[in-house]
């Protein structure tokens, strides 16, 4: 694997935004950026003059995307490439050779609809490297301060790879990391109303806070230059992460490499955050 970054380009506004975001990531990694166009070419353009016209359009598309990608990073090395084939298969294969894959995400605002592209979802579910999904309305420019990176964790060891990705991204972006731990109390607590029940609830909340602090202690020691902000909250992880995303520059979620018939799947939390978060979402394989 190289430290290169690949952005998938198909001419859509979302893919242009992905190329620009990927350019920033590549610049921070001090590596190059590859803009990759993948498509199933219709039979009628496989030969002759029509093929040349089609190829010319793709070259123009990539040239325009490269210009957009380099707008904020004039010294960045940007390469372009095109290949024919199934976009999901080709992008997943490309992801085995690089550190980061960036794709456009056609999501709607909160609870207005589910329009994230099927290609983006399939690649995020199967890629061996982290995949960042970027919306077309992602703001760009030289902000004075960068919003925090948000990452959702649980109390299991599998959260380590998510924390590592989030902290390294935040260090390069010169911002902090808000570490969100969502938990749900037993159903019988919701009746409440008694001193014993309230005390039990408070004790459990303190235990969850302490557990998150234990998880973060070695990371604070290893990365003293990155502020880690713990956030332990009661409720749905998907809803809490989506809410936190409103104030974030990037949200990091995990994906277990559970496979059914050779096909990876996104969990409910990752699915919800991808659909509803307004900022870019990084899907990181845990295994």
UniProtKB/TrEMBL annotation:
UspA domain: which residues? Answer: 1-135, 149-285
Judging by the UniProt lineage, the source's domain of life is Bacteria
Spell out the SUPFAM superfamilies in the cross-references: Adenine nucleotide alpha hydrolases-like
Coiled coil residues, start to end: none
**What InterPro entries does this protein's entry cite?**
Rossmann-like_a/b/a_fold (IPR014729), Universal_stress_UspA (IPR006015), UspA (IPR006016)
Tell me which Pfam families the record gives. Answer: Usp
Family, as annotated: Belongs to the universal stress protein A family.
Task: Read off the PANTHER family from this record.
Answer: STRESS RESPONSE PROTEIN NHAX, UNIVERSAL STRESS PROTEIN UP12
Designated name of the protein = Universal stress protein
Q: Which organism is it from?
A: Streptacidiphilus pinicola
């Amino acid at each position: 694997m190289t430290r290169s970054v690949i952005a998938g380009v198909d001419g859509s506004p979302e893919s242009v935004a992905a190329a620009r975001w990927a350019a920033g990531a590549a610049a921070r990694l001090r590596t190059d950026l590859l803009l990759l166009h993948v498509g199933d070419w219709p039979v009628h353009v496989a030969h002759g003059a029509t093929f040349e016209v089609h190829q010319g359009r793709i070259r123009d598309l990539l040239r325009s995307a490269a210009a957009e990608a380099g707008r904020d990073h004039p010294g960045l090395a940007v390469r372009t490439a095109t290949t024919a084939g199934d976009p999901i298969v080709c992008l997943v294969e490309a992801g085995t050779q690089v550190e980061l894959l960036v794709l456009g995400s056609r999501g709607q605002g909160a609870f207005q609809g589910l329009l994230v592209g099927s290609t983006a979802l399939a690649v995020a579910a199967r890629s061996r490297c982290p995949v960042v999904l970027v919306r077309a309305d992602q703001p760009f420019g030289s902000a004075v301060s960068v919003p925090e990176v948000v990452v959702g964790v649980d109390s299991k060891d599998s959260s380590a790879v998510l924390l590592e990705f989030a902290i390294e991204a935040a260090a390069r972006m010169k911002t902090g990391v808000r570490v969100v731990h969502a938990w749900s109390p037993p159903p019988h607590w919701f009746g409440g109303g008694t001193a014993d029940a309230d005390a039990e609830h408070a004790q459990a909340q303190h235990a969850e806070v302490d557990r998150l602090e234990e998880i973060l202690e070695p990371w604070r020691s290893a990365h003293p230059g990155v502020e880690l902000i713990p956030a332990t909250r009661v409720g749905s992880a998907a809803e809490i992460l989506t809410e936190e995303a409103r104030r974030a520059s990037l949200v990091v979620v995990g994906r277990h490499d559970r496979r059914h018939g050779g096909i990876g799947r996104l969990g409910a939390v990752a699915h919800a955050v991808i659909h509803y978060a307004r900022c870019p979402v990084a899907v990181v394989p845990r295994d």
